Sequence to fold (371 residues):
Amino acid sequence: MNMVPTGGQSRISQHAITETTSVISHQLKTPLSAIKSSLEVVLSGDLGVLGKDQQEYMQLALDNVKKMITLVKDLLDASKIEEGRMQLVLEKVDPVKVAQGVIKDLSPFAGAKNTEIEFQAEEGVPQIQMDVIKMQQVFNNLLFNAIKYSRGKGQIMFSVKKDGDKVLFACRDNGIGIADSDKDKMFGKFYRSPRVSILAPDGSGLGLYISKAIIELSGGKIWFESEVDKGTTFYFTLPIQ
Amino acid sequence: MAIVKTYKILLIEDDKFLIKLYSEKLVREGFEVSMAISGEEGLKKIERERPDLILLDIILPQKNGFDILSEVKLNPNTNSIPVIMLTNLGQDADIKTGMDLGAADYLIKTDFSINDLPERIRAVLAKHSL
Fold:
């Protein structure tokens, strides 16, 4: 009788699950892009002027389709991480410029949330090898969280400096902070603190999981310090080759 | 009176609903649009119609978009036609493959607004006519 080790079975099932996620994610993108494009055309006024209520409902639908697209992409990334299929396309770039680009793109969202993003880069930060698109995703995840979880007048400080044979990035906010009971779960898949779910119900719980995987695949580390109701600082490093 | 050139765009896309959305948008913006719903049909139309620009999906019946792009760029009769990839394949490796094969731009359907499509096409056409 052939015995199949339990571990083997579990690996096969896990492979089937992640493969299915990957296929479903790709298949979902086609109808989602069709829905998104349709709503954009209607909202642009190309097909006739919309009334205020119609505009509002169409915009609500579009915002939700965009959220779903983000979730599908996150699921696809998570399945790749689990299968060890996530790959980096490395190029030598100035990390300061990459960070500045993301901050600029997020400024309108920060402004709408009454939050200011300050940026500090020390002299002498060298060019480093990075996957620009994936690192933009990391910067975006951290800054987006900092904006989302700010309260009242938000203050965010994003800094970049050389630290020995690494470049050290820090993203500090004065938001709600992370409770001690949540701290060891923050980089877990699908984990969302109950406090956070109330403040921003639309997150997928995959942003930090994906960010950690990208940073570690790039040879860096990520960690944070946080105090409830005072704020959080996420730190991460990337190696200087 | 100045004569304004009407640019002809060949859209190679197998999703009928997206064909309708993109083509109607481009016609409203003053482009002439021709369509193909498979890779083979697309290649025939490129050869026969010599469009000013090609909008090319990647996952297509018969022949995929990367194969089509490669054939277009290897053929001296068509290699000067700019090609914009318009796809849902958005992984870094896909983008790199498209750009390495000679695409003029790479648009991910879920990430860009259809309202920006005419401008992206005009930018490529302007760069191409320099």
Notes: Strands of chain B lie at 8-12, 32-36, 53-56, 83-87, 105-108. The radius of gyration of chain B is 14 Å. The mean pLDDT of chain B is 92. The longest strand of chain B covers residues 8-12.
